Amino acid sequence: MKKVSGKIKEYIQPFERTLAVKELNSIAKAKPLGNPNEVDFTIRTNTQLKLLAERLAYWESVSTSTESRVTTQSKREATVNIVRNGIDLDALKSILPFKREVPLPNRRCLRYGTHGIHEYRGKFFPQLVRSLINISGTTKGGLVADPMSGSGTTMVEANLLGCKAKGLDMNPLSVYIGNTKCALLQADPSKLKAEYINVREAILQPEGRNNFSLKYFCSLPEKDQEYLKSWFCDEVLRELDDIAQILGTVKYKPAKDLMWVALSNILRSVSWQKDDDLRVRKEVRLDVEIDPKKEFLEELARSVRAILAFLYQNGPMRKFDFEVLTGDARKCAKVWDDVKGKIDVVITSPPYATALPYLDTDRLSLIYLGLLPRPEHRSRDLMMIGNREITESLKSEYLLRLVDDRHKLPESIHALIRKIEKQNKGTNAGFRRRNLPAILAKYFFDMRDVLFGVYTSLKPGGIAYFVVGNNHTIAGGQRVDIWTAALLTEIAASLKFKVHESISMEMLVSRDIFKKNASDSEKILVFQKPAL
């Protein structure tokens, strides 16, 4: 056994330090020696230094008495420093991959590679996912899954660790973003660069509109056209159509998909949608100059540089096995029937109970990109887990289930629902608060179905990590806490999962446009399917 020293990243949070020690222990099969408050640790291990450097998420470097290596993760994060203020694309290629000196980040970096190509509420920390794959013991060729895959962070990190990945989400935009992010990991940088230059030059050409027509816009369903006209001024629709028609000429699919994702990411800012509001609420801004082409080119340039830097640093990468489908997490076992009992690890972040209007947030992108027609939004939204809305028929269905399937939910959930009903009784509570008992019943029945599907899909001994937050409501003028993490843990135990100690997360200050909606309390729940 050889002595190996490791330096942990100095700026990470306490819960991440806990994960850092766990992942080193899992890979090196040795417990790190050192003061938990220090950044330097020592182990004795037979694990190769190269493997440690390739896999670790929260470590800056590893070394022996004769060799030192900056971790692959740190190098990937360092590419963000290279492109932060813009850089000539030829110059970018000339300095990557890093030779000797690596401009290591001195602060948190979450948007390296493909992780930063689209704003997304409730986005995972990539390093968190990477560390959990390591801690689970999943090695190259293993199968990682996420039944509520969001923007695809789990799939991207699984692929980067050489694992196969399966994702599932009800939101077609999420599925599109996730597939695009994964495909770009194996993109040809020369083709990506060439397509970017061609598109940029085409957009910057002087406009000739004598016989102008909204060719792309008119290809959308009429009801979608009518709706979009109420959210964009005529000039913006014309400019967006210019961009869309140019994107239609792009032949290299990874580049084309990236460009559509970039276009999606600017729609909020060039519309009359309130910029920092989760729901689509109008704020007509006639006194503000809106330049869609300028915003698109800036967004695309930033994304292309980040991805090219990542590709230049990593070099040619093998073809990854990934699949992100539009589908219902409650039916994940059926969707993943071909790998039933074979998934090594599930890493997911389910919605909080009544927390976010996920589909509604992306309404304009779903319509403009032709991913989901406007008339279908409400029915899809009502199907989504954690939704705040409920129809009278669904309300009746789930209140009846509380009686007929009472045994399927822990008594603590029934007690919570009874408490809210009692406190709201005889008050002038609004319809959302009056509906909350049924909404909570739906949420926990739905999550039970998800947990059952995950249990079925995991291999014996496989682990599921659920990153979930707690929230609260007001009933009868009093605050009622919804301890989602503890309640989901009770459901998991009732399904015969082995429950391990959870890990509390200190919520990081969000820098995205949804930061005012962030929760301040999250836990990593750890559930294991018993081994045979």
Descriptive report:
This protein has 532 residues and is an alpha/beta fold. Among the domains are: 2-109, no CATH class; 136-169 and 319-361 and 372-528, Rossmann fold. The protein contains 20 helices and 13 strands. The strands form 3 sheets. A 7-stranded mixed sheet has the order 7-6-5-8-9-13-12, sandwiched between helices. It has a 4-stranded antiparallel sheet with strand order 2-1-3-4. The protein has a two-stranded antiparallel sheet with strand order 10-11.
**Overall geometry:** globular
CATH-scheme architecture of one domain: 3-Layer(aba) Sandwich
Main structural class: alpha/beta
Assembly category = single chain
Q: What's the helical proportion of residues?
A: 40-55%
Strand content: 5-15%
Fourth CATH level, the homologous superfamily of one domain:
Vaccinia Virus protein VP39
- Biggest sheet features: 7 strands, mixed
As residue ranges, the low-confidence spans are 509-519
As laid out across the biggest beta sheet, the strand order is: 7-6-5-8-9-13-12
Q: Based on DSSP secondary structure assignment, what is the total number of beta strands?
A: 13
Average predicted local confidence, pLDDT: 90
CA-CA gap between termini: 32 Å
Fold topology:
Layout: E1 2-8, H1 14-28, E2 40-45, H2 49-55, E3 59-63, E4 68-70, H3 72-83, H4 89-95, H5 126-136, E5 143-146, H6 153-160, E6 164-169, H7 172-184, H8 189-204, H9 222-229, H10 234-247, H11 253-270, H12 292-314, E7 322-326, H13 332-335, E8 343-348, H14 358-361, H15 363-368, H16 377-383, H17 392-404, H18 411-424, H19 431-457, E9 458-469, E10 471-475, E11 478-482, H20 484-494, E12 498-505, E13 522-528
Parallel strand pairs: 5-6, 5-8, 6-7, 8-9
Antiparallel strand pairs: 1-2, 1-3, 3-4, 9-13, 10-11, 12-13
Helix pairs in contact: 1-5, 3-12, 5-6, 7-11, 8-11, 8-12, 10-11, 11-12, 17-19, 18-19, 19-20
